[in-house]
Structure formats: C-alpha cells, structure tokens
Amino acid sequence: MPIHRLLKDGDLPDDQIRVVNRAFDLAMKSLGLVDRNDPFTEMVAAKVIAAAKRGLRDPVAISEAAVSELRS
Fold first, then answer.
1. pTM of the predicted model, to two decimals?
2. In angstroms, what CA-CA distances link 33 with 3, 57, 67?
3. What is the per-residue pLDDT across 2-29, written as a single tens digit (0 to 9) for each?
4. Sign of the CA dihedral 5, 54, 44, 60?
5. What pLDDT score was predicted for residue 68?
6. How confident is the model at residue 64 (pLDDT cuts 50, 70, 90)?
7. Which of 2, 47, 48, 67 makes an SS bond possible with 42, Cβ 3.0 to 4.6 Å?
C-alpha cells in the first residue's frame, strides 16, 4: 500500500498515522479507487499526507482536502 511506504519517514506521530490511514481510505473510496497498486494511489497518498502535515487532524477533512486538490 503506497501510504505505508510514504509514511516510513516517521514525520508523523503514531496517533496521527492512524488518522492518515483512515483519511487515505476515505479518499480512495471518494475517488472510486480500489486497486491499491494503481500508480494514481501514490498521488492520493501524497496529497493525504501533505494535508495532515498542514495541520489537519480530522480524517474526513484530510480526505476532502486531498480529493479537492486532486480534482482541481
């Protein structure tokens, strides 16, 4: 799963990693993606992580921010 590979840096605390994983799942569902090996999922994961690093803490808000950026 691309989100785990991108989270290896250790920039986020464990409790935030759980939030990011939930946000990633929500973003994938919102975008209708199921194949986690699709190269686009890495872009989704990167946007989710970036939103979390900007200070968002709610998985729904993180997911919505990531999806919004991907759709624009």
1. 0.88
2. 14, 23, 12
3. 677 777 766 778 888 899 999 999 999 9
4. positive
5. 97
6. very high
7. 2
Q: Which domain does 52 fall in, by range?
A: 2-71
**Which residues have C-beta within 8 Å of that of residue 28, sequence separation ≥ 6?**
34, 36, 41, 44
Total length of the chain? 72
Q: What is the 3-state secondary structure (H, E, C) of the chain?
A: CHHHHHHHHCCCCHHHHHHHHHHHHHHHHHCCCCCCCCHHHHHHHHHHHHHHHCCCCCHHHHHHHHHHHHHC
Please report, as a single letter, which amino acid is at residue 70.
L
Per-residue pLDDT, 1: 58
What is the number of structural domains in the chain? Answer: 1
